[in-house]
Write a structure and sequence with these properties.
about 60% helix, 11 helices, mainly alpha, about 250 residues
Length: about 250
């Protein structure tokens, strides 16, 4: 091994190996009931029901095996979660390179949104500690390429790409959290505020909240397409990146 290949801790190196060079199934001997792919898939199934339930014991139950047998494939829950995140990022397709930078960036954002909707447990992942896996890094590499088309400087490209990912993550987290809460309590967002309608007559006054009142009277709080709010915010993010690029060229 080269010096660079030996950087990091033994545990960190083992995690990287699992992501990039997982052990293949043995070619000889009795066929094994489990594979790393099956363990990861079972973890995603458990997390889809409830991330709180994700444990080596629950994954083993999903597979119909003893919990100790899983440790042959993955060291523990945290490492399994990293593998699950990298697997989930694999659903994201890459944009058509013939498109302009903005259309490609929008495509990336919509693919991120689709990923979170297909795998709601992903809102518990940490954007600042993404697994160094092939699927995560392939997507990030392409998003950096897309934002680089603006001609912005290296640091601004990195910050802008991170802003796009962070914005979609935050928007998805809000929607998924509210959907989950509604399913758990049986109370929709409208039901929540209807139950507290007495607030408006008792505590809301024009003197204390004049701007809110003006916006309300002007229809500012009417939502024709609540699900589309995240796209409005995405447009503002991309507008800002575009203005930075225009200013640099000017």
């Amino acid at each position: 091994m080269t010096e660079q290949q030996e950087w990091g801790t033994p545990a960190g190196q083992a995690m990287v190996e699992l992501l990039w060079n997982p052990p293949p199934p043995p070619r000889r001997g009795p066929r094994q009931k489990l594979t790393l792919d099956r363990v990861v898939a079972a973890g995603m199934t458990v997390a889809a029901r409830s991330l709180d339930e994700l444990s080596m014991r629950k994954v083993a139950q999903e597979l119909g095996v003893g919990a100790m047998s899983l440790y042959t494939y993955v060291p523990g829950r945290d490492e399994l979660f990293e593998l699950m995140i990298d697997r989930a990022w694999g659903v994201r397709e890459l944009p058509d390179r013939a498109l302009g930078w903005r259309a490609q960036a929008e495509f990336h954002a919509h693919e991120a949104w689709r990923m979170y909707r297909e795998h709601p447990w992903m809102i518990s992942s940490n954007l600042w500690r993404m697994p160094l896996g092939p699927r995560v890094l392939d997507v990030q590499e392409d998003l950096y390429r897309v934002v680089s088309l603006t001609g912005l400087g290296a640091r601004t490209v990195v910050h802008s790409a991170g802003l796009i990912e962070s914005y979609v993550f935050g928007a998805a987290r809000g929607v998924i959290t509210d959907t989950s809460l509604s399913a758990r309590t049986g109370e929709s967002q409208d039901d929540y505020y209807a139950a507290r309608a007495g607030f408006w007559g008792r505590f809301f006054t024009d003197e204390r909240f004049p701007t809110m009142r003006t916006l309300w009277d002007a229809g500012g709080f009417e939502e024709d397409n609540p699900a589309g709010d995240w796209e409005f915010g995405l447009g503002l993010v991309l507008d800002g990146i575009g203005r930075l690029a225009d200013a640099d060229r000017g």
